[in-house]
């Protein structure tokens, strides 16, 4: 595939009227992608992760955080390579479709939609909690829904506008974390980590805490879903992924260590605002500092929601454009050139989910969907590398790709273990049956071969460095 910037969105095989009907504007730079990557996940640094302490204890949670961080460094490397080779809105669906086939691509796309949509609903619940804290006399669920609708409208208006807003909110969120670090460093006492039981449940506890350490990085792969709207993807996607994961991982580790060494673990489990709670213990009399931090923390949740809307809308758009989902979701607004129905309709579903499920369950579902999608992406990457290296000897093949095989095997075992231990087997079977039946009864009959991801799947083997 050529790296010609003018041919990235729609190749020479597509005709002009297809571009006018389904094309997205290319407006994003590496800075926009960094803001999107960091902004989408940074809310996880402020809330949600503390639920995992109950499963693993403080030291166990630190181990879990380190393991998950290393995994995400690995997975973002795969994503930026794929997003350069296949710079389409399909993201995970496009990568898996290319290497494994239509059905597997469809499943990867559906898991991505579930991840982003359920994560957005969890963030909406947290926004509501913060609004209760700030405006105790208000009808806060309506305020949270209003925030959601505002960002839906911004995305319909245009990706560049929402990306600029995301970049600003990301900067504000980082300022909040710096403010937190400055306000709490005097209260750090590393012995606090060892006061309570350092590890709860041994290895089992660490494994159970993984969905909550995944929350630190959940949806960061959403950067790849903006590849079709990115200028010069071969450079900007790499920079966007690299600096996003670096920024987030550094802040996550600092925040976890400060929180666990400043207060008792049980105190962190007693509310939904771990950072605000720690800051309140460190600076109990500074009402201005606490108020400012609370407001800035709320902005970080807005940033998360904004990025997650971008993620699920682009994945739904690409699946619809290729015929896997109803065609209505691939309609492009004639003026703004955005997939307005793929933004609006799932957003309404997300608002409903935020009123019917709790944040803990939403985070768990989003995490399992994310990891399930990664299984397909890693397998696709393994196959891509195998196709690029002629290895006839089976021993040499296993030797060269052992790390990738082992990683995927571990993830499969983890997903099965998590579903069984949480008692979600029946729910997963029902959901899996629905999406599989939908594919075989409807989707496969309406697949559009002219969609960029489908056209690419018929091209020669991709070359990867």
Q: Which helices and strands, and how do they pair?
A:
Layout: H1 16-22, H2 30-41, H3 43-46, H4 53-85, H5 92-99, H6 102-134, H7 140-157, H8 159-184, H9 192-195, H10 202-214, H11 233-262, H12 265-269, H13 274-282, H14 287-321, H15 340-356, H16 359-388, H17 394-421, H18 425-441, H19 452-457
Helix pairs in contact: 2-8, 2-11, 2-14, 4-10, 4-11, 4-16, 5-6, 5-16, 6-7, 6-14, 6-15, 6-16, 7-14, 7-15, 8-11, 8-14, 14-15, 16-17
How would you sum up this structure in a few lines?
The protein has 465 residues and is an all-alpha fold. 72% of the residues lie in helices and 0% in strands. Residues 1-19 have low confidence and may be disordered.
Written overview of the protein:
With 465 residues, the protein is mainly alpha-helical. The chain has a single domain, classed as Up-down Bundle (Amino acid/polyamine transporter I). 72% of the residues lie in helices and 0% in strands. Helix 4 packs across helix 16, helix 6 runs antiparallel to helix 14 and helix 7 runs antiparallel to helix 15. It is globular, with a radius of gyration of 22 Å. The N terminus is likely disordered.
List keywords for this structure.
465 residues; 72% helix; globular
Main beta-sheet strand count, sense and barrel state:
none
Strand content: under 5%
Low-pLDDT parts are 1-19
Q: How far from one another are the termini? A: 14 Å
**Residues in helices, as a percent range:** over 70%
Category by helix and strand content:
mainly alpha
What sort of overall outline do the alpha carbons produce when their principal axes are compared?
Answer: globular
| CATH class assignment | Mainly Alpha
Q: Judging by the overall fold, what is the CATH architecture?
A: Up-down Bundle
Looking at CATH, the homologous superfamily is Amino acid/polyamine transporter I
Give the oligomeric state of the chains in this entry, treating copies of one chain as homo and distinct chains as hetero.
Answer: single chain
Please count the helical segments.
19
Chain-averaged pLDDT: 85
SSE order in H/E notation? HHHHHHHHHHHHHHHHHHH
Rg from C-alpha positions?
22 Å
* CATH topology assignment: Amino acid/polyamine transporter I
* Overall number of strands: 0
Give the number of domains: 1
